[in-house]
Specification:
Layout: E1 5-8, E2 11-15, H1 25-31, E3 40-43, E4 56-59, H2 72-95, H3 112-130
Parallel strand pairs: 3-4
Antiparallel strand pairs: 1-2
């Protein structure tokens, strides 16, 4: 199952429709209208190269040129992005605590997979309200 999340303060605020695992990130993003306010920041990875939203700042790592090397500043930028992205990975790990997402879902009724992901994201948000994570900026 593959979704695109919009996260703020460790809470999942937006979840795209569920796609098969073989779907690529950029076509999912192209098909999804994002409810991002003007002048917000979108922290994305190299799977979103070529994807741009108007009035939104995109922060992504710098890709190494073919046959070349990254400069020291570019490496430091990539480290800063990785430090911020690890928080997103922790959020995904918290969502996947519900083992139904890790295993094969054999429920074939329409929209059941989307509902399962929504419930797991809701449980993650509920857990955060009960036991907040230490404050750290994304």
């Amino acid at each position: 199952m593959k979704n695109v999340l919009v996260v703020q303060a460790f809470l999942v605020l937006f979840l795209s429709d569920t796609y098969e695992g073989s779907a690529h990130d950029k076509p999912i993003a192209d098909a999804t209208p994002y409810p991002l306010p003007h002048d917000s920041e979108l922290l994305d990875d190299l799977g979103f190269l070529g994807y741009e939203l108007a009035n939104v700042q995109h922060t992504r790592p710098v890709r190494k040129p073919m046959g070349g090397e990254l400069t020291t500043d570019q490496k430091e930028h990539n480290r800063q992005v990785a430090r911020r992205r690890v928080v997103i990975e922790h959020i995904l790990s918290s969502i996947k605590r519900c083992h139904i997402l890790k295993d094969t879902i054999r429920l074939w009724k329409d929209d059941v997979r989307d509902l399962v992901m929504e419930i797991c994201c809701g449980l993650h948000n509920f857990r955060l309200r009960l036991n907040p994570w230490p404050t750290r900026t994304l």
